[in-house]
Write a structure and sequence with these properties.
It is a single chain. By secondary structure, the protein is mostly helical. It has one domain. Helix content is 85%, strand content 0%. Helix 2 runs antiparallel to helix 3.
Length: 143
């Protein structure tokens, strides 16, 4: 099989799974923003777990909205009210997963005393899966 045939197969696979692939790429970058933000705030600025986690989550949520809207789900809103509705829906769903993240961090780190960065990674895995479902079925659903 020629190289161009492999490239064509890879391209067709990419097109078939484009949304999931891009979600994983930008979800990974969002996770990086979240974890690096948390480490900078908790280690360098010596913030407590919950405020550092909350600020890191807020930064990553804003990053996720922009990247999901533009690159992953290619959402086009035709009016300001539609854009506001979409953004509010995104924030509402992210507040739910933010609560899940905060609960995981509180229970595992503050109560059980487990290693915070490992628990942050675990929380992010769970949150990424939930966020994809919310984004696909509620926020950026195709009409």
């Amino acid at each position: 099989m020629a190289i161009k045939d492999y490239i064509k197969k890879i391209y067709l696979l990419y097109m078939k799974y484009k949304e999931i692939i891009l979600y994983l790429v930008f979800g990974g970058l969002t996770t990086l923003v979240n974890i690096v933000g948390y480490i900078l705030l908790s280690r360098w600025l010596r913030m407590d777990t919950m405020p550092a986690n909350g600020i890191a989550l807020a930064l990553s949520i804003l990053f996720a909205y922009v990247t999901n809207k533009i690159f992953v789900f290619e959402s086009r809103t035709d009016s300001l009210s539609a854009a506001v509705r979409e953004f509010c829906s995104f924030i509402a769903c992210r507040l739910v997963t933010m609560a899940v993240d905060m609960l995981i961090m509180y229970v595992t780190v503050d109560i059980f005393g487990w290693f915070d960065v490992a628990m942050k990674l675990l929380a992010n895995i769970i949150v990424i899966a939930l966020n994809f479902v919310f984004s696909k079925l509620i926020i950026f659903k195709k009409s």
